[in-house]
Amino acid sequence: MKTLLRAAAAASLSCCALATTVAHAAGAYPTKPITLVVGYTAGGSVDLVARTVAPELGKRLGQSVVIENLGGAGGTIGASKVVKAEADGYTLLLGSGSEVSIARLTNAAVRYDGERDLAPITFVGTQPMVLVGKLQLPAKDAGELMALARSQPGKLSYASSGVGTPLNLAGELIKQQGKVNITHVPYKGASAMATDLLGGQIDLAVMVLSSALPHIQAGRVRAYGVTEGKRASVAPNVPALAETPSLKGVDMGVWFGLMAPAATPRPVVDRLNTEMQAVLAQPDVRKKLAEAGVEVAPANPAQFGTFIKRETARYRTIVQTADIRE
Questions:
Q1: Which of 247, 278, 295 is the last residue of a domain?
Q2: What is the value of pTM for the model shown?
Q3: Domain that holds residue 96
Q4: Which of 100, 134, 226, 266 is most buried, with most CB under 10 Å away?
Q5: What does the pLDDT look like over 42-59, one tens digit per residue?
Q6: DSSP codes of every residue in 229-275
Q7: PANTHER family in the record, alphabetically (predicted)?
Q8: Residues 146 and 168 placed together within one structural domain of the fold
């Protein structure tokens, strides 16, 4: 993640110089509205990112960018639509690691390959997840929690928003790093998961930080740590799990990026990347995303593609070790 952030910073310096050349190469594109597919229902983190960038991207392109929410199957319905769409730059995906990389590793029914069938355009950034627990647990920090889990193998439980989601993989990574046995309880959504955690029906949960933060700030749950390697700027008082020696290898977030069908012409991809870089440089856009816990780190297509390959390899190791299957 740190390597990507450094590379993204360097790439952004040349963004403006490329704008004129790229716009000329892309010709008249776009000449009609663009559909931005989100593989989830409205209100989630991917949808929030899409609705933050879409209006500004439309202004820069001179055409409206219309969001289409296609929820279901862990984002794969939306991703499948984009994979099968005409590669002309008019059907795009605001994607995340779940539907781009994880789905095909955990579900044999997923027929597309995110690395092969989608063209990376611009990496937007990442949002941390957080391990939270019910207040009745005696463990006051992550170190005590790992000790408690080791003393009671399989007795503690953790919730996620479903099998094969980034939350599930983060939970399994915590188990693998901490060498503990905690039972996974998959839920169909974050709302039911939070309700049961607050009611004490479940011991622990891995949640997206933006969803968990109101509960943490109100003192309704205990925050054991964020899943990225450093503390989140939006919640500096919540430690990183990696600060605990036995969990030093925990560094995983939910990432977001703009993508297109694989055969999309390079001039179109470059034009979209140039305009997205400019959108993500706008202070009001960065502020809104930061308030939702998203660390903006815009990167170009090549950097984004390298990042996806690296993350997919990490996901594969977690999935195979935990034998995660839908």
A1: 247
A2: 0.88
A3: 2-127+254-322
A4: 226
A5: 988 999 999 999 999 999
A6: SS--TT-TTSPBGGGSGGGTT---EEEEEEEEETT--HHHHHHHHHH
A7: BLR1237 PROTEIN, TRICARBOXYLATE-BINDING PROTEIN
A8: yes
